[in-house]
Amino acid sequence: xxIRLIDIVSDTYTNSSGYTFYSELKRQLSKGEQVQVSFLGxxxxxxxxxxxxxxxxxxxIGLEKFLKSVKPADVTxxxxxxxxxxxQGFRSGTTA
Length: 96
Hints:
mainly alpha, three-stranded parallel sheet, 5 helices
């Protein structure tokens, strides 16, 4: 399943947009499918957006299951760097 961020949220900056995206991710994952998340056409996500989307999901299902279930696609180098930094924070216990 491919989810395009641009089709689900109007921005990647706010907690409310992050929660909207979290809800859609959770709905898709409940079907038992791996989800590809396309970042095409959106700016690098803010920490508020990531905390309310990926962070909430990681806290719910665990980091390893998240990494197996959610795959970024169409990422720019800046977006990739932000996502890598965010995931590393969870691995080291510095992201909450």
